[in-house]
Amino acid sequence: MSPKHRRQTHHFDRSRSGPADLPSLSNDVQLLDAEGTDVRSPLHALTIDRVLLAGASGESTVTWVGTGQYAQTASLHDLAPAPRVLDRIEVARGFTAYQHYALVRDAIDRIDGTTVLFVVPAVDAPYRQSDLAHEDAHEMFLRVLAHLARVSRRYNIPVLVTRTGTGDFGEAVAELAVDTFTYRETRAGPRFEGSDHETLVYDVGDGWVQTTLAYWRQVLESRQPLYADADSDVSSPHGVV
After folding, report:
1. Least packed by Cβ within 10 Å: which of 5, 103, 104, 227?
2. Is pTM, for the whole model, over 0.90?
3. Which three-class secondary structure state does DSSP give residue 118?
4. Nearest-5° Cα angle at 97, 104 to 76
């Protein structure tokens, strides 16, 4: 078992506990940042949450454009309450700046009325690692960001991005985002913080919270009343490990 998947528990004052909570995504470009931890599990939880909140007509879809190692989707599979949820997430994966740029443009061309979220994890990665000259890579990267800005305006859907660092690439992402959700693991448990959002810790019993995939499954399970319109085969997430 790798360290990032190891079970972690923290004790906290029960009086501080509250219902499981996740940020509500507005129809803008939003940045999910992390402080010293892997952002993939919370990103995947937000993606699954968006699919389930959209209802179970089977017509709501998510478009996901990743690159290289940042296109890993194992925890999407672990978090999804049923295979039909995964069927609604369309994943594209590139390995170079040119491939990523082309995939973003192609994915945008295929957006329709069923798309409820556009996800681009590590949006800066292929351009930082490109063999292109820095100025050329940066120019291509800025064009990608301009395309993403148009997605939220034209289709009125959330665009959720993450970045791999700061500097000129990372700062451009932050400037594009209408809001930034910072994810961090505290002694009380995982927490999202945004301009108008702060997650309450989630109590899994006896004053303990858990920060592994089991934690995220319990968060989604606790939000089942919000998924009231979901099909019966997606209304009960996996049992908690």
Report:
1. 5
2. no
3. strand
4. 55
pLDDT digits (tens, 9 = 90+) for 4-13: 333 333 333 3
**Cα(145)–Cα(124) distance, rounded to whole angstroms?**
10
Kindly report the backbone phi and psi dihedral angles of residue 138, in degrees, each rounded to the nearest multiple of 5, phi listed first.
Answer: -65, -40
Task: Check pLDDT > 60 for residue 117.
Answer: yes
- Tokens 């979220």 label which residue? 117
Residues 167-201: pLDDT tens digits?
A: 999 999 999 999 999 988 766 566 788 776 665 55
* Sequence-ordered list of residues with C-beta below 8 angstroms from that of 161, at least 6 positions apart, any chain: 29, 30, 31, 32, 119, 120, 121, 123, 148, 173, 176, 177
Reply yes or no on domain 11-112+130-153+168-234 having CATH 1.10.10. no
